[in-house]
Specification:
By secondary structure, this protein is an all-alpha fold. It has helices spanning 2-23, 37-54, 66-79, 81-84, 114-123, 139-150, 157-176.
């Protein structure tokens, strides 16, 4: 019995010291300081486990046809590409300014089930730069975006054109200055 009480007391003491450490400002919260391997591992596993547990098991109602993939490409371009990259600029310009860095979907495709990607787009991820988009995008738009994410490696010409046109406009604007 003494060992059990000692164990409980030790756990409470460790927890209290951890809180004291946090509340006195010894945990570095700067976004430009990369997370430790332990922090990245624990946070990544915790996020994956939470999304797997809380995301509803939904079926994507949006067909992966040219029109929907092009619509998803427009949404991705407007809301995601700056952090996650796109076919023309595989590394998003804001990726490294986030902590943890945003996944780069052109080189590391989104591999969660569509229902979990839908959940993440809708609700965001706390303590990252990933906002919840449920007040910005309709449910239909979110599914179009998720459909695009699921088919990024096999996009039809209409979806690829979204990024090519934007790159051409940016180059034209750069040349005129």
């Amino acid at each position: 019995m003494k060992g059990f009480v000692f164990g409980i007391f030790t756990m409470i003491l460790i927890f209290a010291l951890g809180l004291l450490f946090a509340y006195t400002g010894f945990i570095d919260m700067r976004a430009d300081n990369p997370p430790s391997k332990i922090e990245a591992s624990v946070a990544g596993h915790a996020m994956d486990a939470n999304v797997a547990r809380t995301a509803p098991k939904l079926t994507n109602p949006v067909a992966a046809n040219d029109a929907n993939l092009a619509a998803g490409a427009h949404l991705y371009h407007d809301h995601c590409a700056h952090c996650h990259g796109d076919p023309v600029n595989p590394k998003g310009p804001l990726a490294e300014s986030l902590n943890p860095p945003a996944p780069q979907f052109m080189t590391d495709a989104a591999d969660m089930p569509e229902s979990q990607n839908f959940y993440i787009v809708q609700h965001g991820i706390r303590w990252t730069g990933m906002p919840g988009m449920k007040t910005t995008l309709s449910e239909q738009q979110t599914w179009e975006l998720v459909t695009f994410l699921s088919h990024m490696n096999t996009l039809p010409a209409a979806a690829k054109l979204v990024f090519a046109e934007t790159a051409a406009r940016a180059q034209q604007s750069f040349n005129s200055n």
